[in-house]
Amino acid sequence: QVQLVESGGGLAQAGGSLRVSCAASGRAFGSFTMGWFRQAPGKEREFVAAISRSGAITFFADSVKGRFTISRDNAKNTVYLQMNSLKVEDTAVYYCAAVPRPMLTQGVMSRPNEYDYWGQGTQVTVSS
């Protein structure tokens, strides 16, 4: 069992930056592959990024590639999503997710149902 709590969302202007964090408690954080997803009003939850247990492998959705980075600090039980060059279309609730298995292909890790644990989400709003 692991509990996930996101923080760091808020309001940013287009072109600006935000960093959201996800703190985990419970089982050994280093045993979890971590992902970030987002959901905008009226839309399905979509994959943003994923990071392997060691942090050596990362995947990104095409829509955020080159603008967002994902990282983790296993000593602090925290995963981060640094969002740069924000666009209005990045506005959504951002969720972190965890699964106690090694990283698989991006096609697999981009599916919400691959993850066993979810945080409550944090709102990110980008204004023009």
State the helical fraction.
under 10%
Order of helix and strand elements from N to C terminus? EEEEEEEEEHEE
First-last Cα distance: 40 Å
Q: What is the strand tally?
A: 11
Specify the structural class.
mainly beta
Please give the count of helices: 1
Strand content: over 45%
CA radius of gyration: 13 Å
The coarse overall form would be globular
pLDDT < 50 runs, ≥5 residues: none
Mean pLDDT, all residues = 97
Biggest pleated-sheet summary = 7 strands, mixed
What does this protein look like?
By secondary structure, the protein is mainly beta. The chain is built from one helix and eleven strands. The strands form two sheets. Strands 2, 4, 5, 6, 9, 10 and 11 form a seven-stranded mixed β-sheet that branches. A hairpin with a 4-residue loop joins strand 7 and strand 8. The model has no long low-confidence stretch (mean pLDDT 97).
Report a brief summary of the structure.
The chain has 128 residues and is mainly β. Helix content is 3%, strand content 49%.
Question: What order do the helices and strands come in, and which of them pair?
Answer:
Blueprint: E1 2-7, E2 10-13, E3 18-26, E4 33-39, E5 46-51, E6 58-60, E7 68-73, E8 78-83, E9 92-99, H1 106-109, E10 117-118, E11 122-127
Parallel strand pairs: 2-11
Antiparallel strand pairs: 1-3, 3-8, 4-5, 4-9, 5-6, 7-8, 9-10, 9-11
Notable features of this structure?
128 residues, mainly beta
